[in-house]
Amino acid sequence: MKTLPCILYREFPADGFKQIQQTLTGAVNRRKTTRPLPLLFRADDIGVPSVNALRLLKLFSNYGVPLCLAVVPTWLTAIRWEKFKAHVDTTSPQWCWHQHGWRHANHQPSGKKAEFGAARTKSALRVDLIRGRDRLTSVMGSDFSPFFTPPWNRCSEETLELLAELGYRGISRSKGEQTRRAPLDDFFINVDLHTRKEVDAVSALQALCEELRQAVEEYYVSIMIHHQLMNESGFELLDLLLAFISQSSRFKVCSFSDLGEPESG
Ligand SMILES: [Zn+2]
């Protein structure tokens, strides 16, 4: 698992947040309606109550902003869960604790990585989904919500069918993975804060602002967080973003449980 923050946060531009704020404000003001814009935060690779993971929870807890947490079943133990519980009220509807794969392992022999990709048989996919859900349910009890974020934000058509068959309430992948309409609610993410691939900070900031602008135009802003890749700049930006969003009447922060499937408007 990579832990080096991307270039944007290693060399965060001095006016970075100002640019992001102006982008959001400009895009929201261009909209004809004043209906609050649905906004979602999803944090991936949860399971170990590390310093960064607990700091992330504390930050969201301070603002009272909902957060969807994708938990890797094999990473979560009863002892680790107790540690999460000691830091936040895990039962609060603010959190949507849900499933992130089984052990976050790639099974594709080549091409893009996936744990639930086309290289696997339907029975193998089913086994991993069920044992992942069983493990999370046994550790978290009723705090677990039956939504699924596939590792690397992609999965096979068979996985979608299985999720629907097994009664999951929704899936969350990357925007662009929707080759056909999913048989369950699809809370795709369209803004990537921490796994950006640009080679310099200025282009990374520009690309991030462009994602935010497009997301506002789509009337659905869904922001992906990777706490393992966050340094001080990463936390500072997220703090400013949460302060801005929670003070603005133009946004309505939701979680999978209360959003319903995104629709444009
Ligand atoms: Zn992941």
Structure overview:
Helices cover 40% and strands 15% of the residues. It has 265 residues and is of the alpha/beta class. It has a domain at 1-9 and 45-138 and 151-176 and 186-196 and 217-258: Glycoside hydrolase/deacetylase (TIM Barrel). Strands 1, 2, 3, 4, 5, 6, 7, 8 and 9 form a 9-stranded parallel β-sheet that branches. The longest helix is centred in the middle third of the chain and has 19 residues, at 122-140. The structure holds zinc ion (ZN).
Give the N-to-C terminal Cα separation. 38 Å
Discrete helix count: 9
Mean pLDDT: 94
What proportion of the residues form beta strands (DSSP E)?
15-25%
State the helical fraction.
40-55%
Q: Briefly note the structural class of the backbone.
A: alpha/beta
Largest sheet, in brief, is: 9 strands, parallel
**Which molecules are bound in this entry?**
zinc ion
How would you name the CATH homologous superfamily of the domain at 1-9 and 45-138 and 151-176 and 186-196 and 217-258?
A: Glycoside hydrolase/deacetylase
Q: Low-confidence parts lasting 5 or more residues at pLDDT below 50?
A: none
- CATH topology grouping of the domain at 1-9 and 45-138 and 151-176 and 186-196 and 217-258: TIM Barrel
In angstroms, what is the radius of gyration? 18 Å
Q: What's the CATH C level of the domain at 1-9 and 45-138 and 151-176 and 186-196 and 217-258?
A: Alpha Beta
Mass-distribution shape: globular
